[in-house]
What does this fold into?
Amino acid sequence: MEQPVLQWQAGTVTAIRPETLKTKSFTLALPKWMAHRPGQHYDIRLTAPDGYQTQRSYSIASAPERVGELELTVERIADGEVSPYLHDVLVLGDRLEVRGPIGGYFVWEVALGGPLLVIAGGSGVVPLMAMLRHRAAQHATMPTRMLYSSRTADDVIYRDELDALAASDRTLEVFFTFTRQPPAGWTGYRRRIDAAMLGEVIQPFDKRARVYVCGPTLLVEAVANALVQMELPTEQIRTERFGPSGA
Ligand SMILES: Cc1cc2nc3c(=O)[nH]c(=O)nc-3n(C[C@H](O)[C@H](O)[C@H](O)COP(=O)(O)OP(=O)(O)OC[C@H]3O[C@@H](n4cnc5c(N)ncnc54)[C@H](O)[C@@H]3O)c2cc1C
It folds into this structure.
């Protein structure tokens, strides 16, 4: 199905919330809000006084059930052009040019069913969070697991909300792995995601799992290759790459 041409519109920043030292969530009220499919993204366009323009894509973190507004979660890339502007310059009440929702491949909604396995590296958790928030808003109960890789405990985005979601829902389990410094007393995974870890997390779902993988390019490629090696049908694997970093 052909997508309609999306118009740029000016969203108003109505909330800014720090998530971790390097990530912030931004709520935008949109005059022409449209329900999105969890996993889709918006483009943000910045225009300098001299007319220079640049744009980047940001996944929608919020569920489509939140009518009229959208939430984006952005990691500050130290030498970046757009993400430091969003972190350091943007304030409440500012207007931001956005266009979306965009994308029809990396999407999951309750009607697609499960079992569902979502695998995140770093800020790659953002579109997967939209899926989990949508699932919770719909009171869906298909078996669902998240495997989320972060460098340290301080880098985990949405930690409290993920813990609360998992605690209130027997059909949802969240597994963390820490690649640099696990929290004190941590007994869970403490390495990069590998085939053995994937095998353990996917085990109860076996080859029926619908898998969504999002994060740095190297993580996404390693996970996708391991899933193919496990003979998971490729049409059940959806991937999204956020950036060049391999960490
Ligand atoms: C479909 C899609 C959805 C995305 N969703 C999100 C999201 O929800 N949250 C989010 O924070 N980002 C997301 N991104 C990444 C985002 O679009 C930008 O690439 C990122 O914010 C960097 O932009 P920048 O202008 O700050 O840095 P740039 O000026 O573009 O790059 C500066 C330097 O950082 C490197 N770099 C670029 N992107 C990354 C990255 N992601 N990680 C590490 N190094 C990087 C570049 O190679 C370059 O060396 C998404 C990307 C895509 C394609």
Remarks:
- The chain has two domains: 9-102, 110-241.
- The first helix runs from residue 83 to 88.
- Residues 41, 56-59, 73-75, 77, 79-83, 123, 126, 240, 242-245 surround flavin-adenine dinucleotide (CB under 6 Å).
- The chain has a mean pLDDT of 95.
